[in-house]
Write a structure and sequence with these properties.
The protein is α+β, with helices and mostly antiparallel strands. The chain folds into two domains: 190 residues, 2-Layer Sandwich (BirA Bifunctional Protein, domain 2), CATH 3.30.930; 42 residues, Roll (SH3 type barrels). The chain contains five helices and twelve strands. The longest helix is centred in the C-terminal third of the chain and has 22 residues. It is globular and about 55 Å long. The termini are far apart. The chain binds biotin. The site of biotin has 20 residues, from helix 1, strand 3, strand 6 and strand 7.
Amino acid sequence: VGRELVCFEETDSTNLQALRLGEQGATEGTVLVAESQRGGKGRLGRHWLSPSGVNLYTSIILRPRIPPWDAPQLTFLSAVAVARAVQQVCALPARVKWPNDILINGRKVAGLLNELSAETDAVHFVVLGIGLNINMRADQIPASLRYPATSLAIEMDRPLSRVEVACAVYRQLDDLYHLYLNEGFDPIRLAWEACFDLVGEKVRVESGDRTLSGIVQGIDTDGALLVAAAGTVERVLAGDVVPVG
Ligand code: BTN
């Protein structure tokens, strides 16, 4: 990861650029990084605020030989990579939130957006998109966000080297990706569950018009959240998970 590096002063979105480069045959491990994004993409069509010079906006192109239904596994891989990099550089208690946010003390510090180019039974390439708030100040965070947000600098009370943090993320990604290629999803799943506070806890899951209460068991091979409720284990594919009591 990172042998090929493409840097932008400003771009529409590193994910969009990575999708374009991927179609043009960019090699596995190509890293794209931007100082700022005009159209940073968040999940569910949301906008990802991307002010210049303070945070990390990056996309990584991978070409694993996996079927498309295994592609969500890479989101969990990137979540573990970011959480570990934050723990390593800052010694902060970074935790994961299902399906793909990174939190510190309950506030969102990073978001992940993975995109896929695939045919019916084969992945061409995957784009791992990572937005990590590093030196953003509290007054640069809009109060209107869906979740309370934070940055590493806010949590540490001092600015950090963005290069150091970014390199830690790429190194962790590299290690975890090799582990994934050699040993499959199981070690990644276990590592992710070790960063997830809700295994064994009672939760309420709200997805669309359905609400489910039960005990979190972990995640399935396709990234579904496993919740034990009324004597069976339910698979939850999307929704908000709220701890109960
Ligand atoms: C989320 O909604 O939580 C996911 C946010 C993902 C943002 C990153 S920033 C780098 C990459 N390029 C994008 O346009 N989005 C991702």
